[in-house]
Write a structure and sequence with these properties.
single chain, alpha/beta, seven-stranded parallel β-sheet, 8 helices, 48% helix, globular
Length: 251
């Protein structure tokens, strides 16, 4: 394992991605923060640097093969070869099946599945060379099925199969692959969902908490803690797993 690890976190400008970037930086990793708009990542980059860490923001569309390769090359040039990848970039296009367009389906599949594939393929060579690597894919409790999310549920379930296959293929090179499947997490995305269904965010989260055994909704830092475990050197015997971080039993 290299002495100074470098991580790439996609969808790192806000929400879970930003929390993961901050947590891994606190753990001592240098962070390449990827998002569509690099400027949106700058507040997180500045937080990390102010705390003594190393980080850069890179604008990248994870569905574009050439852009992904260039983004990974830039991180490698400026921070070092990445041996940790967190595939967090995601979008929602929620509709009941009869209202869901082909564009709604395709865009969700592309960001979650094509994006994770392209990013993982682009970094795995660095991991194999180092004899050490950690890939964490952000799945979701919606992988078990969720009304109005046929596209998102299918994509998040697909990420679990992708994770298990990476674990089988890359394990002999010292690379692990795991997934975190969050339940209800208070983010900008869930706030947008509340607005779409006509509820205040406070009412939306209160209703969600009623169905969660621990009696509260989750926060991005809850997921960042799970990712921190999976990417740690000590977690090398844990691979191909899906951790439901949902405040109660799932899966």
């Amino acid at each position: 394992m290299p002495g100074s690890r470098v991580a790439i976190v996609t969808g790192a400008a806000r929400g879970i991605g930003a929390a993961v970037a901050r947590r891994l930086a606190a753990d001592g990793l240098a962070i390449g923060l990827l998002d569509l708009d690099s400027a949106a990542c700058e507040p997180v980059v500045q937080d990390i640097r102010a705390a003594g860490g190393r980080a850069i923001a890179v604008g990248a569309d994870v569905v574009d093969e050439d852009v992904v390769e260039a983004a990974v090359a830039r991180v490698t040039d400026e921070l070092g070869a990445p041996t940790v990848l967190v595939n967090n970039a995601g979008i929602i296009r929620d509709h009941l099946l009869f209202r869901m367009s082909v564009a709604d389906w395709d865009s969700v599949m592309e960001v979650h599945l094509r994006g994770a594939f392209l990013m993982s393929r682009a970094v795995q060579g660095h991991m194999v060379t180092a004899g050490f690597g950690r890939i964490v894919n952000l799945s979701s409790g919606s992988a078990l099925g969720n009304r109005g999310q046929a596209n998102y549920s299918a994509a998040k379930a697909g990420l679990q199969g992708f994770t298990k296959t990476l674990a089988l293929e890359l394990g002999r090179f010292g690379v692990t692959a795991n997934a975190v499947a969050p339940g209800f997490i208070e983010t900008e995305m869930t706030a947008e969902t509340a607005e779409r269904v006509g509820l205040s965010f406070e009412d939306f989260t209160a209703r969600a908490a009623e169905d969660i055994p621990v009696g509260r909704t989750g926060h991005p830092d809850d997921i960042a803690h799970c990712v921190s475990f999976f990417v740690s050197p000590e977690a090398g015997f844990v691979s191909g797993q899906v951790l439901y971080a949902a405040g109660g039993p799932r899966g």
